[in-house]
Amino acid sequence: MTKDLKVNFLGTELINPFVLASAPPTKDYETIKKAFEAGWAGAVTKSVVSSPLKDKQPRIGHIKYKGKVLASQNYEMGSVYTPEQWADWAVKLTKEFPDRMLYASIFADANPDGWKYLAEYFLGTGIQGLELNFSCPHSDHNGKGSIIGQNPDLCASLTEAVKKTVGEELKIMPKLTYLSHPNEGLVSRMCIEAGADAIAGINTIAGLCEINPYNLKPRLNTGGKTTAGGLSYHMIRPFGRLVISRVADAIDWKKHPISAMGGVSKDIGSIVDYLSLGANHLQVCTEVMNNGFNVIDEMKKNLLDYLNETGRTLDNLRGKALPYVTVWNNLDETDRVARISWDDCVLCEECISYCQYDAIQYNKEDLSINENCNGCGSCYSVCPTNAITMVKKD
Ligand SMILES: Cc1cc2nc3c(=O)[nH]c(=O)nc-3n(C[C@H](O)[C@H](O)[C@H](O)COP(=O)(O)O)c2cc1C
């Protein structure tokens, strides 16, 4: 059966659920054009600012484990191109690619005038909407980004100011920061009440790069010194999942769709995670920075294979994991213990080192779980063959 990957996002039909996030893969006209030609359904421009800053060189690094990039880190600022330039490119792109979604990301400080000034540039350009960058984690010293995203009242008042400026011509989508936790639900609800049409999130999360243990210099440094940089890619997916699930809980996501990002890759788990937690579609950044635009082919194939295999459609996948997410107080109180299935156990002993309660004994060819088992679940989670299950205590 051929499954349909089309998605309706606020009246715009996306040809698939994969959109490029605001970042180097959307840094200028040529790059976005190349992405659309490769099959991306949409793009959010690199954040447009009123006075572009010079980028630091270098500014992007990677955190690897056993040769695999787990996270990337950067302290890149907004676009180096002017709003005038972006407005011209927006006109060209929307004419050349009328079937794609194009949003401009705008990025200013706590003064609403800066947001209104940027928003006005995009009126009449043909783009569908604006993403409001309330979330860059390394612009706080400029009074921008996540320092705004942590303040629900400020997010709401800036959203309202932009909405008043663009009226019904452009959709408005504030982009949230993980750093608003545990207020992500409140921020998103207040933005919607202030006129936002959709919610996006998450941006990168601030961290400090690794220190080289031999020369004690930061691995990512510019002329010897480093600074706070935003982490992206696989490592931030748990944070993204949390924010998206909380936003989905706080707003009517069928009416005000969620554009989710943070570690979306060609791994089917990352795609299903967000859709099943209520996302309308996905934004992708680091996967493309590290593997190129053509990764879209694998992403589409992996999603189609998954839908065919499970018999699901995008509509009956969206939000279906939400009933399984709740607050701690609502979790079940049944006493449980671990049980080993001997058919599946390969005697790797991994569970023994993960047990905090001395509950697992090993006698040459047998593992057994004793009455010390406290039901914590650590062994069950680490078992490579799923030989351990958690069962109701007798
Ligand atoms: C080098 C780099 C530059 C970025 N620049 C912006 C930006 O200008 N505006 C913005 O809202 N987000 C920016 N981001 C954040 C991404 O849009 C995205 O939210 C984040 O990387 C998480 O997605 P990912 O894990 O798929 O990379 C940037 C990310 C990277 C890695």
List the keywords.
single chain, 394 residues, alpha/beta, TIM Barrel, Alpha-Beta Plaits, 8-stranded parallel β-barrel, 4-stranded antiparallel sheet, 12 helices, 30% helix, binds flavin mononucleotide
Please outline what is shown here.
With 394 residues, the chain is α/β, with parallel strands linked by helices.
Q: What do you see in this structure?
A:
The chain is an alpha/beta fold. It folds into 2 domains: 7-324, TIM Barrel; 332-392, Alpha-Beta Plaits (2-Layer Sandwich). 30% of the residues lie in helices and 20% in strands. Helix 6 (184-193) crosses helix 7 (237-250). The longest helix has 16 residues, at 295-310. The termini are far apart. The model has no long low-confidence stretch (mean pLDDT 97). Residues 21-24, 46-47, 60, 72, 74, 76, 78, 105, 133, 136, 175, 203-204, 232-233, 236, 261-264, 284-287 line the site of flavin mononucleotide (FMN). Flavin mononucleotide binds next to strand 6 and helix 9.
Radius of gyration: 23 Å
Biggest sheet, open or closed, and with what strands and sense?
8 strands, parallel, barrel
- Helical/strand content category: alpha/beta
**What percentage of the residues does DSSP assign to strands (E)?**
15-25%
Instruction: Assign the CATH topology of the largest domain.
Output: TIM Barrel
Please count the beta strands (DSSP E, at least 2 residues each): 18
CATH level 4 superfamily of the largest domain: Aldolase class I
| N-C termini distance | 46 Å
